Amino acid sequence: MLINPDDRILFTGDSITDGGRDRNNSESLGWGYPAIAGAHLQSRLASPELKIFNRGISGNRVCDLLARVEVDLLALKPSVVSILIGINDVWRRYDANSPTDAKAFARDYRTLLEKIATIRARVVMLEPFLLHVPDDRYAWREDLNPKIDVVRMLAAEFGAELLPLDGLFAQAATQAPAAYWAGDGVHPSAAGHALIAETWLENAGLP
User: Fold this and answer.
1) Is 165:129 a contact under the CB 8 Å cutoff?
2) Is the pTM of this model over 0.85?
């Protein structure tokens, strides 16, 4: 996937994407990987026509993205949509006894992608990921792995770019402790956000 100087890029997802963005400022990118990737894109392309939006919302599941797709996605008329979603569909099973099974996850994600297809935007799908820190995160694999399989299946089905973040973070954890990349196994550190941004940019042909 190549980024054009006049692209309208939308990053959407949960808290990892949200990155503390200012909800009162429609142009706020927060402090996470969308801000890092966005700054590099703006610097390298040096184009006032390039527009970058962040509509991540902390706590969101895939059903939440679908519920707000008209206002927070289609209305922005993006030409590129980057999606990182899924870990809260896992987490709510363990902290709130509110599971999302893989079938429902696939149904809602597919519907979301079908709606994006109506505006012919290029799609980048980022795998949900998990590091095994603290130790109770190991148990989450039973729920997460089928959802990662869904993301991979849908990326192939819709011809989307796929960023394999779960494997990327697993590899990173062989170079430095897991907590270095994400202290709770889910929310990236500054280094973790930079890792995502670098991967996103490399996929866009901007190493």
Assistant:
1) yes
2) yes
